[in-house]
Amino acid sequence: MTRYTTETPPRGTTRNPKESLSLIELVKSLPGLLKGLLTAEFDGLKVKATHIGKNAGIGAGLVVVALMFLFFALGTLVAVGILALSLVLPSWLAALIVFVVFLLVAAVLVLIALRYLRKISDGPSPAEEFQKDIRAVKGTGEYDRH
Prior knowledge:
Blueprint: E1 3-4, E2 21-22, H1 23-85, H2 91-118, H3 126-138
Antiparallel strand pairs: 1-2
Helix pairs in contact: 1-2
């Protein structure tokens, strides 16, 4: 009978043929080996998930900080626009013009958003479609017959 072994000998030693396992002993050791393999795989997945989570958290935090700086940069740009207009107009009028421009842009964006939000209710709901499918399976209701 052919004998196999499941253990690798320590470095610097050789395998003793008398310590080999039979095929039946190998089959008996499969559940333990499989459990060890799955445990090692799950441990590897945990390490990978921890690594991904850590990097994703750091990346997301840096994006938030960058967006904060962008927010302040936009405020600075608005101030520059007001100061540029105040070279030609009184300062209060320049600030009022910039304010009105922002209001108009916001109003246009809200109108566009409302158009998209109204499209949400168009079409049948998933519950209605499900009921229609059930009626089709039962053979009742309206559906395409081929």
